[in-house]
Fold:
Amino acid sequence: MDVTLLYFDDCPNGKVADERLRALADELPDLRLRRRLVETPEEAERVGFHGSPSIHIDGVDAFADADASVGLSCRVYSTPVGPAGSPTIAQLREVLTGG
Structure:
């Protein structure tokens, strides 16, 4: 499975998401983790960037809803403990393993 972490420069939440995804990559040998720096509004539109950080699994944003806007912005995730800048490791594990 191809997982791409999309982020923009100086996004602290991108670093958190990257650490969590790297930990899961150690558990899941078929996970190929890539990182993609999104630098312009045009690129954000082209790749379907719903804010930093975004996690795409096989080209699909794993957490975007139909109404999510596209652009260079910070992203907020709903987690069991409230809003956060990155999904929890449990949420990531769930979308990566399907359960």
Q: What stands out?
A: The two ends are 15 Å apart (CA to CA). The chain has three helices and six strands. Residues 12-27 form the longest helix (16 residues). The mean pLDDT is 94.
